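Please check what follows.
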Amino acid sequence: MRKLTYLAVFETDETTGISVYFPDVPGCVSCGDNFDHALQMAKEALSLHIYGMEKDGEPLPPRTDNIPETRSGDLVVPVSVYPDAVKDEMNNRREKTTVTIPRWLKEAAEAEGINYSRLLETAIKESLGIAS
């Protein structure tokens, strides 16, 4: 499984918690109430940022090992993510959709205990020639 690691800067602020940014990944920022929360949120932000870049066909920025200048008390930490796992999770996430059918058909289906989601998914896969 593909693993990507970028350096993250954790900036501490006594009033607002911890802000996080990735010098090599412009626009990827996050924050947290404490270090553990900020690290968790940084992983999520980096995962979703990379997912969005790849989905849009953008090249991923190269990782540099240049440690940026920081203020006293700030931390520079490598953050690793698994973009293929995130892509799989995002692509297989269930989404709600609305369909319209005649009332009599809805009532008949409900009387038989038909699961609309499963039936619709199966029918669409069949229509597209996708094996389950």
